[in-house]
């Protein structure tokens, strides 16, 4: 149990679930933990490479969105992790550049989404490098520079824009390849995406975690990559496999582009590393290079959605999570309900 839930909250949940008197509270705490960026994922102080993801009674996406651990999440996360691992091994553009946490272990009490956990293990490669969350790249350091600048100074001899180029190339190599070649879009936001800097100059790598809620074009994957499709045959959450290919572009645009790339560009522009138009031009060029590396893949939808459209899709979290019922909004998933209303900042560079 998460320490925050211990006591009255746990007793109330057990009572509401009809489990009062059937659960024995441990007399002492088991291990010392610290909260991570996601709050409900706890780091084991004596084993920092191991995290435990636990239910937590907080609402971050809307009044009806409580952060539980659904039984389907455990199984589906493992299936997607195995799929991504197989792709990373076979795909030349990703081999050696994409790392994944192991989230194959977990447990739950049947029918009780607040009684469960997922065990997350980081790969051994992180012990030989510096691991940084994408969410923290613009955080201020004690020296007054942001973390991205500090990383540029440490690993790129002060060339912050060279680090930006590598970051964009790596990000698009992973996510554009998954989208166009495999029909997969990941909900790998800035919290679930981490950069691994090799202390011995082995290059920049991307580490992804918490991959239990992607969008997958199941028919495309099964038709083109039948051996890979076996990893996700039997997914429990029907929302993962989607029939509309637009769903992949919407997730790529609202996650990879708007959360993992655009804030960094805005931050670097505000720190004098170039005009917004110039920096977004670097994004477009990196995107074009990633498309060039995928010669033969159909990139028309990507170009229409991201480079040609006047507006980008935006997440309508407040509408779907609080202001309207699902019956009225039509939202099958609070976190994946969109509207075409965001300015297309990439057009500034065209």
From TrEMBL:
Domain Aerobactin siderophore biosynthesis IucA/IucC N-terminal: 1-139
Gene3D superfamilies in UniProt: 1.10.510.40
UniProt lineage: Bacteria, Pseudomonadati, Pseudomonadota, Gammaproteobacteria, Oceanospirillales
Signal sequence, start to end: none
UniProt similarity note: Belongs to the IucA/IucC family.
One Pfam family of this chain: IucA_IucC
Protein name from the UniProt record: IucA/IucC family protein
Stretches assigned to the Aerobactin siderophore biosynthesis IucA/IucC-like C-terminal domain: 164-318
Top-rank lineage group of the source organism: Bacteria
């Amino acid at each position: 149990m998460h320490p925050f839930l211990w006591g009255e909250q746990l007793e109330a949940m057990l009572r509401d679930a009809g489990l009062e008197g059937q659960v024995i509270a441990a007399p002492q705490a088991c291990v010392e933990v610290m909260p991570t960026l996601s709050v409900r994922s706890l780091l084991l102080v004596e084993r920092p490479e191991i995290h435990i993801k636990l239910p937590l009674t907080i609402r971050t996406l809307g009044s009806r969105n409580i952060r539980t651990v659904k039984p389907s999440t455990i199984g589906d996360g493992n299936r997607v992790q195995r799929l991504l691992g197989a792709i990373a091994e076979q795909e030349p553009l990703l081999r050696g550049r994409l790392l994944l946490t192991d989230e194959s272990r977990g447990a739950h009490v049947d029918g009780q989404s607040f009684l469960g956990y997922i065990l997350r293990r980081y790969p051994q490669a992180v012990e030989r490098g510096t691991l940084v969350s994408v969410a923290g790249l613009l955080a201020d350091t004690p020296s007054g520079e942001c973390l991205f600048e500090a990383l540029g100074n440490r690993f790129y001899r002060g060339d912050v824009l060279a680090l930006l180029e590598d970051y964009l190339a790596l990000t698009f190599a992973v996510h554009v390849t998954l989208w166009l070649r495999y029909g997969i879009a990941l909900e790998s936001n800035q919290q679930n995406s981490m950069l691994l800097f090799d202390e011995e100059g082995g290059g920049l790598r991307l580490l992804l975690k918490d991959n239990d809620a992607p969008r997958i074009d199941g028919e495309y994957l099964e038709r083109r990559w039948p051996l890979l499709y076996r990893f996700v045959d039997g997914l429990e959450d029907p929302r993962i496999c989607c029939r509309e290919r637009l769903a992949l572009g919407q997730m790529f645009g609202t996650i990879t582009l708007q959360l993992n790339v655009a804030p960094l560009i805005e931050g670097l522009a505000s720190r004098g590393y170039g005009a917004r138009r110039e920096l977004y031009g670097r994004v477009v060029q990196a995107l074009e290079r990633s498309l060039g590396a995928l010669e033969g893949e159909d990139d028309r939808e990507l170009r229409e959605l991201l480079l040609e459209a006047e507006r980008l899709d935006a997440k309508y979290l407040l509408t779907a999570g609080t202001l309207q019922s699902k019956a009225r909004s039509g939202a099958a998933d609070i976190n994946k309900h969109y509207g075409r209303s965001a300015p297309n900042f990439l057009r500034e560079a065209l």
